[in-house]
Amino acid sequence: MRRLENAFWFTFAVPTVGIVLVLFFAPFLYSAFGSFQSKSGQLTLDNYALVARLYTKDVLYTVGIAAFSLAIVLFIGILLCGYLRVYGNKLVEFLFKIPLFVPFVVVGHAMRVFLAPHGILNSMVAQIGLINLDNPPSLAYSWLGISLALAWKNMAMAVLLILGAFRSVHETYLEAARNFGAGAIRQTLDVLLPMSASSLAVASVLMFTSMLASFSIPLMIGGGKGAQMTMIDVYYRITYQGDYGAANALGVVSYLLASGAAIYYLRTVTRK
Amino acid sequence: MKVDPGAMGRATVKIAFLALVLFIIFGPLSSLAIWSVAEKWYWPYALPQQVGLFYWGRVLGSDLMRSLQLGFFIATVVTMLTLLCTVPVGYALARFDVLFKSVIMMLFLLPQAFPQLPVFANAAVLLYKFDLGATIPGVVLIHMVGSLVYAVWIMTAVFKSIPVEMEEAAINLGASRIRAFLSIALPLAVPGIVASSLLVFLYSLDEFTGTLLIGAPFVVTLPVFMYNASMGYELQVASITALLLMIPGMVLLVLLERYLKAEYLSMFGRI
């Protein structure tokens, strides 16, 4: 009977673990292994030499964009969540949840037409006379466009995480600060922010790594020339050149950049 | 009648703030709506010169409908298979001292932490070896990687939140563990199961990276269709597709708004 029961649970566990093992864990190890292989199958460091030569700038560009996006998200997110925590505004809170369920490709496309040289944003700004449409600045196809699109998409997650952290700060602390005459901004910066610093740090690491790994947004809105985000490089290296060695080496670099998040996740498991 | 100038000022600030928020959220999305009805639009005009539903009519009779149906079909299969696998596994992880539990939990965290694209590119090589490249089963499998990882965590949390005493009582009265699971824990878990299956369905419907790498060129779901249209500068077609793609997510947002918790939504913050 006991045996039969074990067999029951086992039947469901095998495909569940099996699919993740075969289609994620194995390719993950294989990509690390493949990064040290030449096309003929010999062990080599050539792929890394190629990555260092061609893609160092792109890696820095990617880190820069992710850092800049994160800065926008944190700046707006902290102030907004401070306001929402202190005063509360159901409508604004709801509106900021919308980007969460807008698919990444849709964000990419919407931002592409919104920020294009003759897109809606430029048209509107031109109406006030701030820019000249004969020679419009283009936010799309640039690092700034990618950063804004990533920030827009990640804003929803940031608001959920930061507001969650702010809400777990007990009301009495805020009351005490108010009794000493602190306004909403003081309450946010001097009470809410320091008291939720650790959860904010975790949220930042997670958002930063997910921005580094972003693929569809830069694919839609990034420029065809100049520096690219690393995931775009990986994709082009494979689809246009069929060069899995270099693509995998670049992939390993991206895993290393994501190790902050990995360490956090590993710790959540080992803590239990 | 006297109006307090301070209150007036505060109301003005509040309205201006709300207008700014509306612009930030809906500004980018509004360009989709405008492009979807733009029959003729050249610069330097700020708005389309000719507006109509011409492209809507054309798009709804085209390949788009096939992509839409295909996407719904794949999402349905993925959701059903994912539920079938993860409901018992989540229960087992929540209740038993499973062998290598922390190793299994770790395995189900890795895909959250690392970039998907380089991994899926190598998974594509593997799937092509087994003749699953550019097929519907191949796309279902790659969607299942993401949804299994996500659903295992949610299901474990759902079953952990159900008090164990009732099942213990049933077992004391002679029920088997499987019976306790099927007739006590499972019915109590239904709300959690429904919520997570909706999220898994949406994940599959919106999935892009894996579908592009494994499905192309024969399995074209709506996100890939939209990508192709946008890259081909068919901006009206792409914008209409984008609007259609947003509908399921918005419905879900309204349905689940109250239950949205950050820890359950990690899947939607990625790629």
How is this structure best described in words?
- The complex is a heterodimer of chains A (272) and B (271).
- Chain A has 13 helices and no strands.
- With 272 residues, chain A is mainly α.
- The model of chain A has no long low-confidence stretch (mean pLDDT 87).
- By secondary structure, chain B is mainly α.
- Chain B folds into two domains: 47 residues, no CATH class; 214 residues, Orthogonal Bundle (MetI-like fold), CATH 1.10.3720.10.
- Chain B has 13 helices and two strands.
- The relative contact order of chain B is 0.13.
CATH class of chain A, please? Answer: Mainly Alpha
What is the makeup of the main sheet of chain A? none
Question: How many strands, what sense, and barrel or not for the largest sheet of chain B?
Answer: 2 strands, antiparallel
Instruction: Give the overall form of chain A.
Output: globular
Please identify the structural class of chain B as seen in this structure. mainly alpha
Report the count of strand segments of chain A.
0
**Domain module count of chain B:** 2
CATH superfamily of chain A: MetI-like
The oligomeric state of the chains shown is heterodimer
What fraction of residues of chain A sit in β-strands? Answer: under 5%
Question: What is the count of DSSP helices of chain A, taking H or I runs of 4+ residues?
Answer: 13
Q: In order across it, which strands form the biggest sheet of chain B? A: 1-2
Tell me, what is the CATH class of the largest domain in chain B? Answer: Mainly Alpha
Low-pLDDT runs of chain A: none
Q: Can you give the helix content of chain A as a percent range?
A: over 70%
- Gyration radius of chain A, to the nearest Å? 23 Å
The CATH superfamily title of the largest domain in chain B: MetI-like
Work out the strand percent of chain B.
under 5%
